[in-house]
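Lecture notes, continued. The same structure-token format from the folding unit now serves as the input rather than the output. Read the line below as a description of shape only.
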């Protein structure tokens, strides 16, 4: 989700043009529309991240990214600006596939594959697992999470997104209910 930080992290200055609310809405539209369309800097950054994390296991990062972002959407709700305090909040509903759902679907199949594989090398087995991961990514449904994104105004009058809070909110939206994964991992280990 670091790419969304880059897209949404651009400074916004309200200098006699559009209102702060309009600038924030435009900033959010720019960032989230890339998530929804599955292209631009967002998709490129996500793809690079997947390549770094899963590429060595044979996961095709572009295929995984396309499957993962398929069905992604967003809806920007209320934007509240407090000029006196120099803060603003934006309510956004983020619809995206969650890693907890992916792991809950992938792990049982991976366990089964480890018991029934005909692979004779680690690379062949990794290719089987990569295919399962991409297939399960295509099969899971996106979930919607409501998040609040905070902007603050600096002493120069420039409004910027709170990157730490945005990263945490997007992590929650993309991770989902990690307790599903924990419960599944415990049941598989028994």
């Amino acid at each position: 989700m670091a790419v969304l930080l880059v897209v949404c992290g651009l400074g916004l200055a309200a200098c006699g043009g559009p209102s702060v609310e309009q600038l924030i809405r435009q900033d959010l539209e720019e960032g989230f529309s890339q998530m929804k369309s599955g292209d631009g800097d967002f998709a490129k950054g996500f793809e690079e991240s997947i390549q770094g994390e899963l590429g060595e296991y044979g996961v095709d990062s572009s295929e995984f990214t396309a499957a993962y972002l398929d069905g992604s959407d967003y809806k920007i709700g209320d934007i509240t600006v407090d000029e006196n305090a120099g803060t603003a909040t934006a309510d956004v509903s983020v619809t995206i596939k969650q890693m907890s759902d992916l792991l809950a679907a992938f792990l049982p199949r991976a366990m089964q594959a480890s018991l029934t594989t005909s692979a004779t090398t680690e690379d062949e087995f990794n290719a089987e697992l990569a295919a399962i991961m991409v297939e399960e990514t295509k099969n899971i449904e996106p979930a919607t999470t409501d998040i609040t994104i905070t902007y603050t105004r600096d002493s120069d009058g420039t409004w910027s997104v709170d990157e730490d809070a945005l990263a945490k909110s997007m992590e929650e939206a993309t991770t989902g209910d990690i307790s599903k994964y924990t419960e599944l991992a415990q049941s598989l280990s028994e």
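Point for the exam: The radius of gyration is 20 Å.
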